[in-house]
Amino acid sequence: MACILCVAKSKTQTTCPFNFFFFFFLFLFFSEFPKVAAQMINPAAALSDPKNRSFYCSLFLVASLICGAYFIGGATIAHEYKEVLYYLLSIKWSRKSFLQKLTRWKVVYNRQNTNFHTCRNRCQPSGSEALPEGIIAKTSDLEPLPLWGSSVNNENSKPSKSLLAIAVGIRQKEIVDKIVKKFLSSDFVVMLFHYDGAVDKWRDLPWSDRAIHVWFAKRFLHPDIVSEYKYIFLWDEDLGVENFNPKRYVSIVQEEVLEISQPALDPDKSEVYHPITARVKKSKVHRRFHKYKGSARCDDHSSAPPCAGWVEMMAPVFSRSAWQCVWYMIQNDLVHAWGLDVQLGYCAQGDRTQNVGVVDSEYIVHLGLSTLGVSDGNKASIMASWVINSPDPSQKGDSKALAPSSSDKVNDRSKVRMQSFIDMQIFKERWSAAVKEDKCWVDPYQLSTN
């Protein structure tokens, strides 16, 4: 008991030796008690024996020392045991407090554990754990709502299935007007990115108030905002859509399970920079390009861009899952996104040779206009010719407005072009550095060849 108390408080460690010797003396006394009692019956005989006299002297001396130490240290011992008593009482009360807390924890645990099998698989968004699941709005959308008369229970107010996001400048107003009208008639949400800042000059168009006018895709097309839309069309503005039906296109990419796609380009009317994007007649979809001559050949065994798994960053269409990946690849400080198309296959949600493709049955015309910067006369004439030959006769008389004025001939296109190449080089360097630094990342296409 004495040594247990010593462990309980450091000060009482000084009393351990005394207690040990005290009990040890008692042990010796009682172990020798039968012998001493027998000798006390005949004390004269016991004292006459020199060995007995020596024993009694030693016993008396030890008893005197023990008793003296006991009485001298009594006050200290009493003080030590008093502190130990206080310590034990504090433990008792602490134990009581602990038991009370333990009881409360047990109640909370039992309450949380009641529906363990129901709740263990719940996956709430980070930061929403403190809220009941039914109140959590996990997604958002770009659907405009009125300030009054909001139809919460109106089934017709559900957001559109897909989104068209298109970069526009006021010089291509007529072309964009045709594109937007076609998509709005197919129940798309339309978002315009005004790279020239001329937002007010679009107000005269009937659909202007239905469109969303913003700036940069990286900032306004966050996956959480556009997660309500099944497909995101991220298009340039210089595209002809006479032979394109948005609803049929969506139906085809769903049927073909294309996570990343683009409509094919009419090779007779378009500027085609990458052969894989050209339309294949009498085909619904193609996923690769064949080239059997020259240095860069493409055949059925090719598995890397530009032979397979490739679309151009001109009219790409992303599934919801693919866009969530692509969004993270867009660099905030690289405006033109050149070089991004080479790596899009990594976001194909599987094999890029199967999940990336070009839709031939719904095709477009790429006018190849110098939209970023002032265009020259030849490019303007291409656009004017397309407008004149369009099926909408009301647009023919406006073709003169497309011709460049004298002030338009101040050409900044070369600067835009140079910046595009700089952006592409920076992106390539960042990609290479990221691959080298990330020791945990495994390239699924490391062995891909053409």
Molecular structure report:
- By secondary structure, the chain is α/β, with parallel strands linked by helices.
- β1, α7 and β2 form a beta-alpha-beta unit.
- α2 runs antiparallel to α4.
- The longest helix has 40 residues.
- The relative contact order is 0.08.
- InterPro entries: DUF707.
- Keywords: Membrane, Transmembrane, Transmembrane helix.
Comma- or semicolon-separated keywords:
450 residues, 9-stranded mixed beta sheet, 9 strands, disordered N terminus
Compute the number of strand runs.
9
CATH architecture of the largest domain: Alpha-Beta Complex
Helices and strands, in order, run as HHHHHHEHEEHEEHEEEHHEHH
Helical segment count: 13
| CATH topology description of the largest domain | Spore Coat Polysaccharide Biosynthesis Protein SpsA, Chain A
What structural class do the secondary elements suggest? alpha/beta
Q: Which class of the largest domain in CATH terms? A: Alpha Beta
Q: Tell me the domain tally.
A: 2
Give the fraction of residues assigned to helices: 40-55%
Spans of 5+ residues with little confidence (pLDDT < 50)? 1-15, 375-410
Main sheet summary: 9 strands, mixed
Radius of gyration: 44 Å
Measured by DSSP, the beta-strand proportion falls in: 5-15%
- Outline type: elongated
Distance between the terminal alpha carbons, to the nearest Å?
A: 84 Å
Mean pLDDT: 74
